[in-house]
Amino acid sequence: MIFVIEMNKNCIENSVFIKNQAEMNYENILTSQNESILTITINRPNQLNALNKATILELHNAFFTADENTSIRAIIITGSGEKAFVAGADIKEFSDFNVAQAAVLSKSGHDLLFDFVENLSTPVIAAINGFALGGGLELAMSAHFRIASDNARMGLPEVSLGVIPGYGGTQRLPQLVGKGKAMELIMTANMMNAEEAKEYGLVNYVVSQEELVPLAEKLATKISRNSGTAISMAINAVNANYKNGVNGFDVEISNFGNCFGSEDFKEGTTAFLEKRKPNFK
Questions:
Q1: The domain that contains 65 carries what CATH number?
Q2: Is 158 a catalytic residue?
Q3: Strand, coil or helix: what is 198?
Q4: What are the residues whose beta carbons fall under 8 Å from the beta carbon of 97, sequence distance 6 or more?
Q5: Is residue 121 part of a domain?
Q6: What is the pLDDT of residues 47-57, one digit of tens each?
Q7: Does 172 share its domain with 268?
Q8: Backbone angles phi, psi at 50, to 5 degrees
Q9: Per the structure, how many domains does the chain have?
């Protein structure tokens, strides 16, 4: 399958991205698999892991490949080092864009990464290990839930540059922290510390740097023991509640019924009746 991206004709000459490529020599990210858990690490420490076009493409490929791999049951996304998860987007790549180019940039980002991650059937945990600003916070909010180190700082500073969040920040932040707090954070461009983020429901846990990835792995391991089919259906049903024109209850009813036709349902109920742990495939 070939996916063509046209983010900016002047900046991207070769915009063909091969989704079905099993392996890729990544320059901006690292991937490692431990049993059923894949960890994706954004690895641009000299740029505080800022998102540029190449990194977005690599992340898309890594998430797509992982979702197609039945041996992977959960994904952790984090940043290299102890300073930043992702400190924002690479501003120099789009500082000279016009209106049309900027709209294409935003749309491409949504399609390639942020909406793509949110709707992935494999659960994604964001382990926020430092600054998560702008596109970095938007990436973390695209994950299915978030945990943070105690030095983490989160915010959407885009209005200080004369622009608004363009990768879903104006939509996902109000869903997570409420409209009033989201308005405050967006309009002031202030950062929120880890404890405040936990208080408002933006992150689920706050731990030390040393405990962050182990906690993410612990949660991912627990997730991986459950039915992947049911988890995929649950992700779809929860997300449906936030889509315009979609009745989330109807999606829940449909997905609940569909679970009954799965091998996981047969295994799960049989294991329960036989008083043993299920062995989901």
A1: 3.90.226.10
A2: yes
A3: helix
A4: 8, 105
A5: yes
A6: 999 999 999 99
A7: no
A8: -60, 145
A9: 2
